[in-house]
Amino acid sequence: MADIEKHDYTVQGGGSESDHGHGVKDIVATKGAAVGEAADIYGDLATAEQYGYVERGLKSRHIQFIALGGTIGTGLFLGIGTAFANAGPVSVLLGYSITGLAVFGMMQSLGEMSTWLPLPGAIPQYCARYADPALGFAVGWNNWYQCAITLCAEISAAAVVISFWDTEEKINQGVWIAIIIVIIIGLNIFAVSIYGEAEFCFASIKIITILGLLLTGVVIWLGGAPDKDRRGFRYWKEGAMKEYIGTGNTGRFSGLWSTLVNAAFSYGGVEMVAVAAGEAANPRKNIPKAIRRVFWRIITFYVLGSFVIGVCISSSDEALTSDNLSGAQKSPWVIACKNAGIPVLPHIVNAVILTSATSSGNAFLYTGSRYLFGVAQNGQAPKFLLKCSKHGVPYYCVGITAVFSLLTFMSLGTSANEVFLWFQNLVTIAQCFTWCSICLGYIGFHKALKAQGVDRNTLIFRSPWQPYTAWITFGFFTLVIFFNGFKPFTQTKGGWGKDQLTDFFTAYVGVAIFFLLYITWKVLKREPFIIPANADIWSGKAALDAEVWPEQIPRNIFEKFWFWLC
């Protein structure tokens, strides 16, 4: 680390670590927490004042609801239906439960790192600091690209969902795309607190909706719907684990494996709370609270959700895979209610899917811009990207990521749409690479703590059964990455056609891109793997330790419940 205010103290070549800590505390006290954190990260006060830094404007309720609603997206409302049609109810329940356990293990690892040092962008910085700079480069740029393209996909999905009400397309979809882009940019460019308020509202709608759907599903299951049909486990008996590719046990196993892949994509975005940790108020309290609730989120929303759907609708229902239906009409929740004689739900669910898609677009613009900011902090992107507004928004990062949203207009033309879908295919497996990188970063962090004499028992948040949790989780997601494209290899007659080549490309081009990024940085910079004793686990920590957050004491039972929830 370079010098910070040389007339006060130096960190390397003339000062001690305690001198550094005292100097940072002085900056925090005199110039504010944001400048203090920036000075601690960048190494000198002049750079911190030149570029500015992000502000900790996300309140506790913002963080908790970003964590609660972050994984509730179109995958839970729509995508899960395809998994049911292919694999059956028990396979989906098992697939989402197994993947949920792996996601929980990954989040425990990420929670420990982000509580120790909550940084904006976080993940590429943890990988570069604790494991390998080339890994930080690869995961940072891969994540940014994933967010930029997924931003387009969510905007496009929102525009398509609107057509549920505008069946004659009296208004061109391009108009809706433009409106949604303007809204999303507006929520991100001014202050992080505006983004936080928007996500708080979006998440509230999604949480209330999914809880309402779960309750409705239980009523349908037990025969309380207008059709008075007590379904029980009828749909499990007709095909609990369906044959997907092959027959017998092989076919059923292939169905189960396909749900693991589907579930991994549905859980995408669960790590978003750690990306926001760098702008969270009182992160040492709010981030552990959010991370500890991950297990209950997974159980309530996905495991219980997949169970309820499985007992309310047949996996052979043609509406699940019909090409003549779109939007909420293909949602298993809507199909279940329609079959049970509940007519009004499609409009409600479609509105929530629209909200969910807009929320996801909002979140991916935020997350993508912070990944870009994190890569710039690593010195692996142009330095001008570090520039922040007076409200703490890295506006160059937001602007560059937002420019990619214009690619959404490509989805309006037939030939251009093919190119747009091709871009989407490139990011299909990127999520699993992010989770694998988090595990590798944590393994390096765990070794660094031990090598540098930090007792894990003193940590504010300590994840259990480490480093075995990280290794097992890493192994699981590695298997998902390399076997997610098994379908083309089951083609035994007549060789591969266009469909098989497309499936193969979709499954594995993302693998090639990630390793190309990794090898490029490794060859160009020739930086070695991080030695645990030399890993930088301290830069930025002194400023955070110097910040004091007021303790909130509930005055009555209502405030006590609200403080517990938020």
Automatic annotation (TrEMBL):
It is found in: Membrane. The keyword Lipid biosynthesis does not apply. It comes from the Eukaryota. The chain crosses the membrane at residues 63-85, 92-110, 143-162, 174-196, 202-224, 294-316, 348-373, 393-413, 419-445, 465-485, 505-524. GO terms for cellular component: membrane. InterPro entries: AA-permease/SLC12A_dom (IPR004841), Amino_acid_permease_CS (IPR004840), APC_YAT (IPR050524). Residues 62-528 form the Amino acid permease/ SLC12A domain. The keyword Membrane applies. Residues 1-22 are annotated as: Disordered. Keywords: Amino-acid transport, Membrane, Transmembrane, Transmembrane helix, Transport. Gene3D superfamilies: Amino acid/polyamine transporter I. It is a multi-pass membrane protein. Its main location: membrane. One of its GO terms (molecular function) is amino acid transmembrane transporter activity. This is Amino acid permease/ SLC12A domain-containing protein. It comes from Karstenula rhodostoma CBS 690.94.
